[in-house]
Amino acid sequence: MTPARAVAPLTVAVTGGRGFLGAAVVDRLRARGHRVLALDVVPGDGPVVDVRDERDLRRVFAAEGVQRVVHAAAVVGVPAVRERLAESTGINVLGSLAVLGASASTGVDRVVDLSSEEIYGDGGSAELLTEETCTRPLTAYGAHKLAVELLAREFAGVLTYAAARLSWVYGRGFPRARPPQSWLDDAREGRRSAPAAGADHVADLIHVDDAASALVILVEAPRLQHRAYNVGSGCGVRLGEVAALIGSLCPAWGIEQAAGQLPGVPMRAPLDTARIRDELGWMPDLSLEDGLRRTLHGR
Ligand SMILES: NC(=O)c1ccc[n+]([C@@H]2O[C@H](COP(=O)([O-])OP(=O)(O)OC[C@H]3O[C@@H](n4cnc5c(N)ncnc54)[C@H](O)[C@@H]3O)[C@@H](O)[C@H]2O)c1
Questions:
Q1: What is the rounded distance in angstroms from the CA atom of residue 86 to the CA atom of residue 92?
Q2: Most buried pick, 63, 98, 191, 210, via CB within 10 A?
Q3: DSSP 3-state assignment of 236?
Q4: This prediction's pTM
Q5: 237-238 vs 202-203, strand pairing mode
Q6: Alpha-carbon distances, residue 111 vs 27, 68, 165, 197, 249 (angstroms)
């Protein structure tokens, strides 16, 4: 939910602006009247900039008068980071430092960084993960995200840093093979999905439009009281229930699911989103059913 109140237009750079979440944030910021520069290594609408190149970032930020940055560029996901460990560490950690450094030296006053619930690891015995829950990532991807949150402290006093700790995001254009996206793609194309494990795996699923609205609020808010905000639905759902919901929306689709957790994927409690709700008024607009329906219809 993005508040209707008017905000003075800002000049915002979105790194990874042609990716899944970055593009959604670019569209939403533009629809709110902001001037938005989408930076990415993938050519398209906006400059081609590699986040590891601090000098290039500085040049673009200074020339364009960038006031706020949304940092969404990364090698994303546990397997991708593991497979390209050295390169992904360069992009995810050193690239993030370059974004912070370029921001600090060109007068950018706020960086909203896309972090992840991976920083909580398995979350221990907590039933709901608050921003104060102990961070103990179990994967290199989670370690990257936490490292950036910690390194950003070096820039305190020069700029405001806010980490958006996102849960599992899904929605149109999700670029990786992870449920429920692969199932929704199959359902849309009229085929059954391949048998899968993980019917009892519990995840906190958030639709990309709701994630983008939270990120816009973190950009627009006149001030932020915290350095980290959980962004999720606040509810855990078994993947078996997700499959049943998709089946009810699309009866021609089906899947054979084995009981148990997804192998190799840490399972954790859902995110407590009270902080962003109470401080900034954000709540997801879409129920899981509405989000799945929207994705099935390609919207
Ligand atoms: N999708 C999720 O479920 C999820 C959950 C938690 C956190 N996040 C975080 O959100 C951010 C965006 O993820 P996404 O799902 O949109 O992934 P994505 O892969 O769609 O987007 C990442 C973008 O970064 C760009 N990029 C990669 N290396 C770059 C570089 N060196 N310089 C400039 N651009 C580069 C890619 O071209 C791509 O467009 C990431 O930081 C990710 O860790 C995503």
A1: 10
A2: 210
A3: coil
A4: 0.97
A5: antiparallel
A6: 18, 6, 14, 38, 39
Instruction: State the Cα–Cα distance between residues 82 and 87, nearest whole angstrom.
Output: 10
Determine the Cα angle at 60 with ends 59 and 62, to 5°.
70
Distance 76 CA to ligand 1 centre (A): 5
Query: For atom 9 of ligand 1, which residue has the closest CA?
Result: 114
Q: Of all protein residues, whose CA lies closest to atom 38 belonging to ligand 1?
A: 19
Helix (H, G, I), strand (E, B) or coil at 114: strand
For residue 65, give every residue at least 6 positions away whose Cβ sits within 8 Å of its Cβ, in sequence order, or none: 11
* Cβ count near 59 (within 10 Å): 15
CATH architecture of 11-296: 3-Layer(aba) Sandwich (3.40)
**Domain locations in the chain as residue ranges:** 11-296
The pocket around ligand 1, CB under 6 angstroms, is made up of: 15-16, 18-22, 40-42, 50-52, 72-74, 76, 91, 95, 114, 116, 166, 168-169, 175
Dig out the tokens for 20 from the structure: 């899944």
- pLDDT in 10s for each residue of the chain, 299 residues: 655 555 799 999 999 999 999 999 999 999 999 999 999 999 999 999 999 999 999 999 999 999 999 999 999 999 999 999 999 999 999 999 999 999 999 999 999 999 999 999 999 988 999 999 999 999 999 999 999 999 999 999 999 999 999 999 999 999 998 899 999 999 999 999 999 999 999 999 999 999 999 999 999 999 999 999 999 999 999 999 999 999 999 999 999 999 999 988 889 999 999 999 999 999 999 999 999 999 998 87
Dihedral angle sign, alpha carbons of residues 215, 161, 41, 179: negative
